Amino acid sequence: MLQQKIEHIFQNRGIRHLLFWMLSFYVLFRLFFTNEKYFYTDWIYTFLFHISLFFVVYINLQLLLPLFFQHKKYLHYLLGFIITLGLGMVLNHLTFQYIADWLFSGYYFISYYEWRDILQFTFIYMALSSLLHLSKSWFDVNEKQKAIHRLEREKLDAALQSLKSQINPHFLFNSLNNLYALSLDSDKRLPDYLLRLSDNLRYMLYECKDDFVPLEKELQYIENYIGFQRLRAPQNANIYYEVQGEIKEQLVGPLLFIPFIENAFKFGLKGSNTDAYVHIYFKISDRALSFNVCNNKGKIDQMPSEHRGIGLENTRKRLDLLYPDRYTLKIEEGKQDFKVFLNISL
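^ that's the sequence the OP posted. Answer follows.
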């Protein structure tokens, strides 16, 4: 906790600059005067000497480095550096010739140093400010790279969690049981459902590795999934699926919608004998996609909310990574129903 507070303090640019000039004042004060007893004029002299140093440091930080050095105009920066050195020396001379008398009338101050010494002081301060600025930039870049790597790691982890959550052994087991039941009845739908199951497994395992997949394939996966859910749903269950709009070459994040659809079937139809329903809607345009799913709330075997939130949290992370500031997610939970509204800018 203490370390975090200290880091927060030093992240403040004003505090860093204040500490720099306080240290500078102390070092030059001790350098200028070696007597055991200090006078009021000693403090004033150190202050006056800092006027030109203050000028060249901030000309360098606010003008030369941003305009030239950071844009790799090194010759321009070198020329500006030399000109600023000269201006700093001139300002130091004017300070002790005129400004000192104007600020502190009644005192007589002279510069104890020759131009070579003034040049050395000015050069050191400009070079030191450049080094400090560049070192801070290096640390900033390093922190940004760490943040990028962390986001990439979270992205991979979130994608992996999403894939793992979809390879649901219970769903696969139930699908195989349903297919077995169809085979016993010599149901003509069996080959079609076997092909659907094969397509879904192939899609999950091999085609979801990229950040984005064709919307057409994602919707086909969802349609196959709903087909298997119809096989095991109660006969009176109202399952409705609709897609509005033209499917062209739109791309979406893989397996973004299935956690909401899976929950709708898992916690809606399960345990409800009457008025069970799951309604799923997609509205598609060239640059936007709207998704809505609503279902009744089952009466038994409800999963605790903390466990239900895991899949939702993973989906939110993936949305943040794939669609930063380009999506809205709204979830409404009533006494009898559960609704999800997701809008994405493609």
